[in-house]
Amino acid sequence: ILEAVRSALESTPPELAADIIDRGIVLAGGGALLRGVDILLREETGLPVTVAEDPLSAVVMGTGKVLDELDLLGKLAV
Question: Taking 60 as the threshold, does the pLDDT of residue 78 lie above it?
Fold first, then answer.
């Protein structure tokens, strides 16, 4: 998980990186339930890290929002 986060941060465009620095990382999904993963990521990245209130449902809700905006997603995809 740590290497995936590092890789994602390294490839993040500067305008989005500024938002991540300001707002931090929100963990969702099953990996967010691993004990101490938020602390490890916070220590290794120096960024604020929080776990979503309901990590498993957050994935489903996010997917639903993307599906509602497929046209927009197509415009944003590279």
Answer: no
Residue 5 identity (one-letter amino acid): V
- At 66, which amino acid appears? V
User: Which CATH number covers residue 61?
Assistant: 3.30.420.40
pLDDT band, very low/low/confident/very high, at 76 (cuts 50, 70, 90)? low
Please enumerate in sequence order all residues whose Cβ is within 8 A of that of 55, keeping only pairs 6 or more positions apart, or say none. Answer: 27, 28, 29, 30, 32, 33
Question: Which structural domain range is residue 6 located in?
Answer: 2-76
Neighbouring residues of 39: CB distance < 8 A, sequence distance ≥ 6: 49
73/78 Cα distance (integer angstroms): 10
Both tokens of 25, joined, read 């990382």
Domain total in the chain: 1
Q: Tell me: the pLDDT tens digits for 37-60?
A: 999 999 999 999 999 999 999 999
